[in-house]
Design brief:
Rossmann fold; 4-stranded parallel sheet; binds zinc ion; 3 domains; 14 helices; 474 residues; 4-stranded antiparallel sheet
């Protein structure tokens, strides 16, 4: 089966065929950097990190991922003013918290992260094009705003399957200057109450960009007029994505070919909100929850489903991660090095991931492989252990939860070439010692142990046979 993704625009599962063979362009709406991110804010990044890894590792695509930073907007201006901090310093502070949170969760860095305030000329270019084509106009009351004319674009509403008549007014600007209350702002005129540094000169007057316009301009600059996948949280579908698509297509661009949206993290069935306080802020949570466990938790459900947060669900994630780590640790001790990157994905895993990233089924395959690997360890079927270990690491890398990645600091590491060589030497020494013990030649067995001890190798006899560790390490 080839990769199928659920396209929210057509509301159907569609075979994914990229625009250009071998390459995928992806635009993900990033965060408005106005505060410390909580787990609900970062779920999108984990979801699209899994998609990106599957495109790369499962299908061999070269992925260009653009994730914007909205560093200029109403909330940033209001909050920074209240705090008495320049808006750009406020935005940059929380951009760094966001980067730190995503990095801690093992989200691969974007190919590029453009900031809205750094792309004003590209936005003005798009406005000019829309005005020229009759789809945008400067506010009729002379305020200096520029609006998109929704009635000029018959496709308006098509992304979210809504007819214009059913839509509420756009609440992003004073309706006084609008031809239609549903018209939305492409450009917002500078207000005397706002800092001059938060405005830029344009042919329409000084001002700052409307939120929707930013993404259209930046996606075009880095991915071209038409690109493969546009992603973001489900709450961005309307008005943000509807407006992005309308203004880009009205300007003659093809824009996104597939639209993907991830679900929320909910508490008591509601979208997680700031009012919950700091307890679910990523940096706070990481004081008591291991990053690998939080990553597992946020990526364990299908990306379109809602995740209901409960403390129990974190404990379940910890138990699941421990099962994977425990197997990997014992397997690495038993068989040493494996080259997981050359291993084929189990068929059931591939099938699940190709089915719109069905990670709950994919994880079930991973845990089944862990169980099989544990049984093989008990029977000392080392070939089977080796195969299970390679398959587990390969699947875990797609889901971003490979415990041997040094980033997680789990202490479980894939064997280095040196350690692998040592493993071969030790296996023969330990086999010789076991042989001596069977023959009740305890002097020879002790001599082998003493020699290994001189080299800093500690031998421990367990029911599964002798285990070795380097002195001072566990
Ligand atoms: Zn966007």
């Amino acid at each position: 089966m080839s990769l199928h993704l659920f396209d929210t625009a057509t509301r159907s599962l569609r075979e994914f065929v990229p625009l250009r063979p071998g390459a995928v362009g992806m635009y993900i709406c990033g965060l408005t950097v106005q505060g410390e991110p909580h787990i609900g804010h970062v779920r999108f990044a984990v979801a699209f990190d899994q998609l990106r890894r599957w495109l790369q590792l499962g299908h061999g695509y070269d992925v260009t991922l653009i994730r914007n930073v909205t560093d200029i907007d109403d909330k940033i201006l209001t909050k920074s003013a209240e705090a008495g901090v320049p808006w750009w310093a406020w935005a940059y502070d929380f951009e760094r918290s966001t980067t730190a949170a995503l990095g801690a969760l093992g989200v691969q860095p974007a190919t590029y992260e453009p900031r809205a305030a750094g792309h004003i000329p590209e936005m003005v270019e798009l406005i000019d094009e829309l005005v020229k084509r009759g789809h945008a106009y400067p506010a009729v009351d002379g305020s200096g705003d520029v609006y998109f004319d929704v009635r000029s674009w018959p496709e308006y509403g098509s992304l979210t399957h809504q007819s214009l008549d059913d839509l509420a007014p756009a609440e992003d600007a004073d309706p006084g200057g609008k031809r239609d209350p549903r018209d939305f702002a492409l450009w917002k005129a500078h207000k005397p109450s706002e800092p001059v540094s938060a405005s830029w000169p344009t042919p329409y007057g000084r001002g700052r960009p409307g939120w929707h316009l930013e993404c259209s301009a930046m996606a075009r600059k880095y991915l071209g007029d038409t690109f493969d996948i546009h992603g973001g949280g489900i709450d961005l579908r309307f008005p943000h994505h509807e407006n992005e698509q309308a203004q880009s297509r009205a300007a003659g661009l093809g824009f996104a070919r597939y639209w993907l949206h991830n679900g929320w993290v909910t508490t008591s069935g509601e979208k997680m909100s700031k009012s919950l306080g700091n307890s679910l802020v990523v940096s706070q949570m990481l004081k008591s929850v291991r990053p690998l466990v939080l990553r597992y938790y946020l990526g364990a459900a299908h990306y379109r489903s809602m995740i209901e947060y409960t403390p129990d669900s974190i404990r379940e994630a910890e138990a699941a991660v421990s099962r994977i780590e425990g197997f990997v640790r014992r397997a690495v001790e038993a068989v040493g090095d494996v080259t997981a990157s050359q291993t084929a994905f189990p068929g059931a895993f591939r099938e699940a991931m190709d089915d719109d990233l069905n990670v709950s089924v994919a994880l079930a395959v991973l845990h089944e492989t862990v169980r099989a690997g544990n049984s093989a360890l008990e029977t000392r079927d080392l070939d089977a252990v080796r195969q299970a270990l390679a398959a587990v690491l390969r699947m875990a890398s797609v889901l971003g939860i490979d415990p041997t990645e040094p980033h997680w600091g789990t202490g479980v590491q894939e064997a280095s070439p040196e350690r692998a060589a040592l493993q071969v030497l030790l296996e023969s020494a330990l086999a010789e010692r076991a042989e001596a013990r069977r023959e009740k030649d305890f002097a020879r067995a002790d001599a082998i142990r003493a020699q290994l001890s001189k080299a800093g190798i500690v031998i421990e006899d367990t029911p599964q046979g002798a285990r070795w560790t380097l002195e001072g390490r566990s």
